[in-house]
Amino acid sequence: MNNNTLIEIAQEIRDTIKNYMYSQEDYGEIVKKKKRDVTRKIDMVAENALESALHKHGFSANVISEELGERIIGSRTPEFTLVFDPVDGTTNASRGIPFFCTSLAYSKTTDKVTFGEISSGVVCDILGNTYHAVKNKGAFLNGKRIKNEPKPSIKKVISIYSYGVPYIPIGILELQKNAIIRILGSIALDMSFVAIGSIDGLIDVRDFLSGYDISASYLILKEAGGIITDINGNDYTDMDVNATGFSFVCAKDKELHSKIISILQ
């Protein structure tokens, strides 16, 4: 699969989601309850859209996704792996808040894919923007290259996800004194905003994330010159995209990333 086809499929899924929402009064309908989350009908609409797109293009793929886990789509031996979050920011979507996206990452590896083996990724938000990256070739917003430099700012804007944890790290409280804090509700889109410089940093300390949440935006951020590590500063290059229950820190500015890690220690 080439990068243009990956973008085309992600955009098709985004458009399918949009059309579904136009046709429904309740687009937050729950079809399955899970231990810490729910599956909504809108998620399954997106899952089905990916399957239809792969069949249409004649691909056979190993697919890792939030709602259906890991499976093979197609009748042949898988040619590649797709890591898919059908709707990242489902709660926003269910409430009609237009900050959510579909996220699709590609690797030619078909067994035990690591973050370092992701070679292209696409994030399509519901407003029509397309973020994409190709490994070693850069990151792009709507076809325009994202500059590999942080934007200057008087006061940093940081997105911090710490709700639901039994305690909030003292460092988080310290950061809140000197930064503007936002929680937007879509990790993949938040990371894409860090990539383009709209948000300076992103922190998630919930130990709640899974590989499908960030696989595409991970590459977009890295190719835009950003840094992403765990809260101890360890890189994710060799981590399996099937990993679950992790936290992370990312920033476009290396100095800010180092400062956040230092504060959290």
Question: How does this structure look, described?
Answer:
By secondary structure, this protein is an alpha+beta fold. The chain has two domains: 3-145, Fructose-1,6-Bisphosphatase, subunit A, domain 1 (Fructose-1,6-Bisphosphatase, Chain A, domain 1, 2-Layer Sandwich); 157-264, D-Maltodextrin-Binding Protein, domain 2 (3-Layer(aba) Sandwich). The chain contains seven helices and 15 strands. The protein has helices at 3-23, 41-57, 90-94, 170-177, 187-196, 211-223, 254-264, and strands spanning 30-33, 38-40, 61-65, 69-73, 80-88, 101-107, 120-125, 130-134, 138-141, 144-145, 157-161, 180-182, 201-210, 227-229, 244-251. Strands 4-3-5-6-7-8-9-10 form an eight-stranded mixed beta sheet, sandwiched between helices. Strands 12-11-13-15-14 form a five-stranded mixed beta sheet, sandwiched between helices. A two-stranded antiparallel ribbon has the order 1-2. A hairpin with a 4-residue loop joins β7 (120-125) and β8 (130-134).
Uncertain runs are none
Q: Find the count of extended strands (DSSP E, 2+ residues).
A: 15
Radius of gyration: 18 Å
CATH fourth-tier homologous superfamily of the largest domain: Fructose-1,6-Bisphosphatase, subunit A, domain 1
| Mean of pLDDT | 91
- As laid out across the biggest beta sheet, the strand order is 4-3-5-6-7-8-9-10
Helix content: 25-40%
Distance between the termini: 42 Å
Q: What structural class results from the helix and strand content? A: alpha+beta
What is the third-level CATH name, the topology of the largest domain?
Fructose-1,6-Bisphosphatase, Chain A, domain 1
Beta content? 25-35%
Number of domains as seen in the coordinates? 2
The CATH architecture of the largest domain: 2-Layer Sandwich
Order of helices and strands: HEEHEEEHEEEEEEHEHEHEEH
Number of helices, where a helix is a run of at least 4 consecutive DSSP H or I residues: 7
Multimer state: single chain
CATH class of the largest domain: Alpha Beta
The coarse silhouette is globular
Largest pleated sheet: 8 strands, mixed
